[in-house]
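# nightly structure sweep
# worker-07 picked up a monomer target from the shared queue
# config: single-sequence mode, recycle default, output format = structure tokens
# input follows
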Amino acid sequence: MIDMRINENGSLYGIGGVEFHLLQILSSYFPFRYELMKSSDWIYGKLNDEGEWSGMMGMLRSGEVDMVVARMAQTWDRTLAVDFSFPYLMDSVVFVTAAPEIRRADFPFIEPFPVMVWCFLLLSLAIPSMVICLLSHPESHKGIWISRWITESYKLLVLLLGQGSHATYQKTRVRAFMYLWVLSKLVLVFSYCSILLSFLMVPRMETPLRTVQELQEAVLSGKYQFTTFQGTSFMILVNETNTGVFKVLGDHIRSHPNNVLSPKDSPFVRILAQHRLSALMSRAYFNYEASEFGWDRFHVPEDNFGHYPCGISMKKGLGMVERINRLIHRITEAGIVEKQMEYDAFRKQIKHSKAASAPPSTQRSLSFTDIQAAVQLLGAGLLAGTCCLIGEICIHRRQTSRKERKMQRRKTF
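# output follows
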């Protein structure tokens, strides 16, 4: 990548970029002249059906130029057509998404526990109530036992919600079992309240894509869209691979042709505008170009698709290959390329300091969604309390009616 400007006469001159400084070092050691060129289609070289190369690869093959200093991926077809120097940079292929946003739950009072915990919570009401029935009335017949099991399950639900009393359990073995159940109830209730309070204090963020496998599953399920640059080696890779994750991404690109980026498009503008979008690019390209928008607005996982070497491409038979390799080896050993990349990214970040000054704050103003969640939370609590009240009234009337029947039977006898 070379940062270029246009002179008054229309010619280009460089002001920064790793490849520009590498070109300056080479020109100071070897007697050659160079000219800065800007590719009209940003395609370094593509092999057509007739076996001819386009772009800079075509210029090397025809002998129009002897050397090209550009961040050109060393594909198999290119290595057969031209010579490449010792790599001055090992770049990685990554996918970039927008930074995770604050997660907004439709039912926030359910969020503290996952579905599996809620299922075990229901079992903690059903199974202990069976144990209580067996400890209290082991010789009851089936009809009465089921009725008592339903009653005991309701009592445990009332106790779990902080209502009712433990005084109804008189037998020692039942009370000993209830002590264990109450201990587990306290752990569940305190865990639920503490997690719910933490959600209110610290906003929950969305879970970003962390691995290539997660990207494949997200694209297959339709949760994320995928894009990359037209005509690049990445596009060739996803289009020509018939297995694995690249086949999935290639099928997605072919079914969504509007997602393909033209050379003049910025993937970062597209990612920020379309939140559920992942873009395939090199890590060095991201570090340089994303600094204009602010690195904190994007997410790049540690996992990647692999690495590829970046070297200087030369026409076949050029006599300076070994000398250039020795010089590049000394440059890489000194760490000049890495330092220059850090400097260029820092310089671009300072230039666009307004966009990349500080990470986005998690604090925001109160919205209608927050009020809706609070109403849902209060409504769920009110509904649970009302159900408990209705249940207690029904049980009380049922027990009173039973006592009245027993009194009438005694009077009859």
